[in-house]
Write a structure and sequence with these properties.
The chain is α+β, with helices and mostly antiparallel strands. It has helices at residues 7-33, 59-69, 92-102, and strands at residues 44-53, 73-78, 84-90, 111-119, 129-131.
Length: 135
C-alpha cells in the first residue's frame, strides 16, 4: 500500500529541524526583549588646580554641592598659594562635565582664570565628597 520509508529518515530530521528552529526563534526573541544590562564605565579620577579669584567667594562649598549633585566622590581645599585644589572621582562623563563645564564658571562671585587637570587614582564612591582644610 504505502512505499517503504526508513523510519529514521523523515521522522528524525523533520522534528529536529522544527524544534531547532523554534529554539532559535525563542532565543532571538528573548534576546531582543531582554537586552543585557548596560555596563558601568570604569571610574575616572582627576586632580584639578583652579586659579583666579577662587578663595573667599564660596568656591569650596559650591564645589562640594555641585560634585555631590553629580554623584562624584572626592574632596576640595584651599591652598596657601591662593588656588583651590580638588580631587574628582566617579562616572567619566560626570567628571568631564565638572572639569570642562562647571569649574571654569564656578559660583557667581568667582573669576576663574585656569583649570589645570591631572590624572589621579579613583576613590571609593562611598567616601562621598568633602571639604578639606587648607594645605
Amino acid at each position: 500500500m504505502f512505499p517503504s520509508i526508513p523510519a529514521t529518515a523523515s521522522r528524525v530530521l523533520l522534528p529536529a529541524t522544527a524544534a531547532t528552529s523554534r529554539r532559535a526563534m525563542a532565543a532571538a526573541t528573548a534576546a531582543s526583549v531582554n537586552p543585557p544590562p548596560p555596563q558601568q564605565p570604569a571610574p575616572k579620577a582627576v586632580r584639578v588646580v583652579v586659579k583666579g579669584r577662587v578663595q573667599g567667594v564660596f568656591f569650596r562649598d559650591w564645589t562640594v554641592e555641585t560634585a555631590r549633585a553629580l554623584g562624584l566622590a572626592g574632596w576640595v581645599r584651599n591652598r596657601r598659594d591662593g588656588t583651590v585644589e580638588a580631587l574628582l572621582s566617579g562616572d567619566p562623563a560626570k567628571v568631564d562635565e565638572m572639569v570642562a563645564r562647571r569649574l571654569p564658571v564656578g559660583p557667581p562671585a568667582a573669576a576663574v582664570t585656569a583649570v589645570l587637570p591631572s590624572p589621579a587614582d579613583p576613590l571609593d564612591p562611598s567616601e562621598g565628597f568633602q571639604r578639606k582644610p587648607t594645605a
